[in-house]
Amino acid sequence: MYYTSSPKIIFSSLKSFYKTLLCLLLIPALFACADLSTSYPVSGSAKSLLTVWRNIDSGIQESGSASPAAGGYIQLGRPVSVAAWADYVYIADAGRQAILRYDMRREVFSVYYRMQVTPATRIIAVAGEYLYVSDSLQSRILYLDRNGRLLREIKDFNLKQPVAIAEDFTRGRILVADAFYNQILVFNKLGRLVKTLHPVDESNAPISGLIAMAVKGDKIYLLDKLQLQIVVTDLDGRYLQTIGRGELRQPVAMRVDDVGRIIVADAFDNSLLFFNESREHKISMLAESVMTMQLADMDLHENWLYLSDVAAARVQVMKLHYPVPASVPEK
């Protein structure tokens, strides 16, 4: 015997099926809409702060380079410091004993400047594609033009062991951190010493382990590798606050982005630590895996982060994401 369902029962079943299907389609959309009000990236997600873009480890050497490489090809040896400006990435390579320049647009290398590069060598790029280079072996700072010509040699009897360089845009000065005397030397653009700063921590003790420095707005950020902390001062070296104590293990480099986040490269576990300097709204420390072997230095240009990896013999370029403002509901 065969049984046949009535049209009414069939219609009711189809109605229930399509209603369930519609709910399943709408629920994800409703959750997606709710996400639009998020003010900051989700904590703990690497993709919320950084996106890996590319690696720079080797490339063709352009024919016009001052010191042609065998076969016209360059492989990074020991990149100890990195700086970026516009389409160029400058790399202080202790393996090749030179500062190399990589043109990201044309994807070619050139030997920018020949010198004795040590693990303490640091470089910064400034407007106009000019470069400042710390030379701790000869207790000096080199100022090079865009073609790698030495324009100025900055020396002073107060300068013994330069470990970091930063530019003060507001006053048109260059700051040099000296680890031997634990002080900051302030030079004008002509290379003349303007003043010497003696920064202290909150206990009024001198900073004894200067390793990195950044200037942003009206503040100086000093990274202390011995006390494992960041000391913030004003442009005259007066103490303001301490950040990151108890969170750092083996800090090697530091930068400050356009929204005031302090980024520290920590070689202990090859991670990046993000801090907010506001005491009232201090965000939690967030470690981002950057797939590096031995972090040595870091630079930040616009929203691109350049990480120098000595052991892997490469520079890793990552896009830095900024917080998205919360959407304001329409009235």
Give the second-level CATH assignment, the architecture of the domain at 57-258.
Answer: 6 Propeller
Q: Write down how many β-strands occur, each being a DSSP E stretch of 2 or more residues.
A: 26
Q: Structural class of the secondary elements?
A: mainly beta
The number of distinct helices, counting runs of at least 4 residues, comes to: 2
Q: What is the strand content?
A: over 45%
**Strand order across the biggest sheet?**
3-2-7-6-5-4
Report the CATH topology name of the domain at 57-258. Neuraminidase
Q: For the residues shown, what is the average pLDDT? A: 83
Offer a quick outline of the entry:
The protein has 2 helices and 26 strands. By secondary structure, it is mostly beta strands.
Could you describe the 3D structure shown?
It is built from 2 helices and 26 strands. It has 331 residues and is mainly β. It has a domain at 57-258: TolB, C-terminal domain (Neuraminidase), CATH 2.120.10.30. The chain is globular, with a radius of gyration of 26 Å.
Task: For the structure shown, list the relevant keywords.
331 residues; mainly beta; Neuraminidase; six-stranded mixed sheet; four-stranded antiparallel sheet; 2 helices; disordered N terminus
SSE arrangement:
Elements: H1 7-34, H2 46-49, E1 50-56, E2 58-61, E3 73-75, E4 79-85, E5 88-93, E6 98-103, E7 108-114, E8 122-126, E9 130-135, E10 140-144, E11 150-154, E12 162-168, E13 173-178, E14 183-188, E15 193-197, E16 210-216, E17 219-224, E18 229-234, E19 239-243, E20 251-256, E21 261-266, E22 271-276, E23 286-289, E24 295-301, E25 304-309, E26 314-320
Parallel strand pairs: 2-7
Antiparallel strand pairs: 1-26, 2-3, 4-5, 5-6, 6-7, 8-9, 9-10, 10-11, 12-13, 13-14, 14-15, 16-17, 17-18, 18-19, 20-21, 21-22, 22-23, 24-25, 25-26
